[in-house]
Amino acid sequence: MSNKIFNLDVNASYGLLPIVKEALRSEFDYGLNPSSIHQGGQRARAVIEDARASIKSFLGIGKDWKVIFTSGATEANNLAIYSSSLASTKNSPFHGITSAIEHHAVLEPFSLLSKKGGFVDFVSPENGKFLVDDFLKYVKHETQIVSLMYANNETGQVMPVRDLFAKVKEENPNISTHCDAVQAFGKTKIEVNSLNADMLTMSGHKIGALTGVGALIVKDDFNFKTLLLGGAQETRQRAGTENVLGIFSLGLACKYHQETLEKNIQKLVSLKEVFKTKLKLAFPDLNFNSYSNEELPNTINVRFPNILSSDLVVGLDLNNLYVSSGAACSSGKPLPSHVLLAMGCSEKEAQESIRISFRHDFQENDIDEVLSIIYKAIKK
Ligand code: PLP
């Protein structure tokens, strides 16, 4: 066995990009408070504003958007959903619409709001497909927010966000639209300006920056109501001393993806095609959990019949191959993936499925070694 580690679990964490790793070794003192008026503080402030500009440039957005730095995507999703609920009253309770396959950082805040007297429609697919009309039928006068992820973290399926948000805004421009785009940034091209989203979520560690940093990207004219009160940071939209080092790394990762996105997408598309073809040849019994014509080019969800995925993940790990048997946040829990169940898998099928997700620097000529590791683990 070679000592090589194959991290094919990049949807859990991308791994630091080399340029981020290198820059973090620099001499700069990121430990100062960007709200301090001395020169040290002002240097930290400049780092933050530079990162904000890099994020905007990567997303192709200008002055009509703001970037609110957060501790990650979980916080950004919670902020987006709870913020939109603040307008609800006893006479007009909260109503939200989302999909059943969102990340828990979206599902849980919605669940809490529904337990507290609000109403939430969790839309499931019809015959394995999400149709815009299945969401639209729940839109009503009181609806406060429609939240839909850009691409699913487990299956890679791209959701009909663009069509849905256009139609929601056509019906009622006052409904807030939020997109958890965590898994799509850096892996596919998103035309943010024309998405009809009021808010988008991004996460640092899903694109090669540090963990513990993210952002909520908000339309400037959107009535965002903050939940974190305290200092005046982030133009009073998110109190708390900023994570300067994390924000710095996020800005760098965005610069990197802006320069390389098209080339890397092409590479991922061809890698995925070769990988899937070779997998099917090596394991004719397998099934791909594939639900959309449009998928992330780095994500493969695959079922090996009669092989428990939790055993397989451990067997592969013993051979330095990292994959996942569900969303990273729920690994460790022996529950079948809520995403696969919602997509129509039985519990048994869901528990036989693994997610393989890779970066652009995974090499085509490593695929055969990866296949032989899987083969050995399955035989065992
Ligand atoms: N949203 C999606 C789609 C994710 O995949 C994840 C993490 O797996 C999150 C939100 C939460 O991200 P974070 O770890 O930055 O809180």
What does this structure look like?
The protein has two domains: 130 residues, Aspartate Aminotransferase, domain 1; 238 residues, Type I PLP-dependent aspartate aminotransferase-like (Major domain) (Aspartate Aminotransferase, domain 2, 3-Layer(aba) Sandwich). The strands form three sheets. The protein has a seven-stranded mixed sheet, with helices on both faces. It has a three-stranded antiparallel sheet with strand order 9-10-12. The chain is an alpha/beta fold. The radius of gyration is 21 Å and the shape is globular. It is 38% helix and 13% strand. α1 packs antiparallel against α8, α3 packs parallel to α4 and α8 crosses α12. It binds pyridoxal-5'-phosphate. The site of pyridoxal-5'-phosphate has 16 residues, from α3.
Ordered list of secondary-structure elements with their pairings:
Blueprint: E1 6-7, H1 18-24, H2 39-59, E2 65-70, H3 73-85, E3 95-99, H4 104-115, E4 119-123, H5 132-136, E5 145-147, H6 161-171, E6 176-180, E7 199-203, E8 214-219, H7 233-236, H8 244-282, E9 287-288, E10 299-303, H9 309-317, E11 321-322, H10 338-342, H11 347-350, E12 353-357, H12 367-379
Parallel strand pairs: 1-11, 3-4, 3-5, 5-6, 6-7
Antiparallel strand pairs: 2-8, 7-8, 9-10, 10-12
Helix pairs in contact: 1-8, 2-8, 3-4, 8-12
The chain binds pyridoxal-5'-phosphate.
Residues 72-74, 77, 103, 105, 149, 153, 180, 182-183, 203, 214, 327-329 line the site of pyridoxal-5'-phosphate.
